[in-house]
Amino acid sequence: MWKQILFHTLLFIVAITGESDDDEIDFSSLTDEVKQDIYNIYNKLNLTSILVKPNVTADKIHYYLFPKGSSNYEEIDTSNPKQFDANSFVVVLIHGWTQDRSTLWYELLKNKFMKRASQYSVVETDWSEYAKLNYVSSSYSVKAVGGFIGEFVVKLIKDRGVPIKNVLIIGHSLGGQVASFVGKKVFELLKEKLPRIIAPDPAGPLFNIRPESDRLNPNDAQVVHVIHTNGGVLGFLRACGTIDFFPNGGSHQNGCLKTILTNIQNLTSAVFCAHHRSWEYLIEGLTLEKKFKSRKCSSHVDYETTNITCTNDYASLGVLNLSSTGKYYLDTNSKSPFSK
């Protein structure tokens, strides 16, 4: 057992430092117990040449509110978030690695929610102080950042009377993993789960090896709605939600060049194409809720060929009140409009 753990720990270190010639190192066959041991060993190693664990503080995380019915924003004083009331329906957006609140998908998704109904308030979080570090350090910030955002959400619920059922968390890429820890912190403090987390292509590197308790998983909210578009490269390939959508198989997207990621620090626009399709699909799906019709199957191979395990259960990835569970597969067009 220990030989297996040490061997895979070394493979893990090689994988994250970009020194492997393999396209992908597969840890999926390992049990959660072995993953936990590997992760614990890695946490204790002195890898200062590649890793600086940042000291995350709440004051370096900022929140910008677009109140319901308003196109103007204001920065929130987290000690007294007076802008919220019991009628607020709050959408909290969490960006990914290298990003800040100027990221394009914030603007597009914020506008989409503000146009849907007048009761939506949108909060754009900015954790760029930690998101713009090297990827390894940013990934180690995720738990603390998510914890602080979770405490902010709890303040809205307890101090401002925002019903927990009116809170929606959306996190893309590394922000999807942050959202996981928002859900965990809310449950820790309130003993009640958030109703819904939406995670367009949650980050995979460094999280594929983590046990469920240290990454996005189906227990983080009542509904964990995941859209996989670059799994095995920048995204998390395996199912990790209560409902998981796999457009075009969940790894490569029509209209994007197929790429192999050998080092997380050396990215190209071609790599980001498939990764960003997740939020593009979500935004289009919010406009056309009956589009992106997806079929429940056990695997993409079965969806494409035999259909033996596929059912007559269908779901659309842009529907906000989804209650379906399982893995859903669909095909898309190579350019917008993406829904077939």
**The CATH superfamily title of the largest domain:** Alpha/Beta hydrolase fold, catalytic domain
- What share of the residues lie within helices? 25-40%
Low confidence ranges: 1-27
Helical/strand content category = alpha/beta
Beta-sheet strand percentage? Answer: 15-25%
Number of strands: 11
For the residues shown, what is the average pLDDT? 86
Shape field: globular
Total of domains:
2
Biggest sheet overview: 11 strands, mixed
Subcellular location: Secreted
Domain Lipase: 75-338
GO molecular function, one term: lipase activity
Pfam family, one: Lipase
Summarize the structure.
By secondary structure, the protein is α/β, with parallel strands linked by helices.
List key phrases describing it:
single chain, 340 residues, alpha/beta, Rossmann fold, 2 domains, eleven-stranded mixed beta sheet, 33% helix
Structure write-up:
The structure is a single chain. By secondary structure, this protein is of the alpha/beta class. The protein folds into two domains: 1-51, no CATH class; 55-288, Rossmann fold, CATH 3.40.50. It has eight helices and eleven strands. The protein has helices spanning 2-16, 32-44, 104-116, 128-131, 135-159, 174-190, 269-287, 300-304, and strands at 62-66, 74-75, 89-94, 120-126, 167-171, 194-200, 221-227, 243-247, 293-296, 314-316, 326-330. Helix 1 crosses helix 2 and helix 5 (135-159) packs parallel to helix 6 (174-190). The radius of gyration is 19 Å and the shape is globular. Residues 1-27 have low confidence and may be disordered. It is found in: Secreted. This is Lipase domain-containing protein.
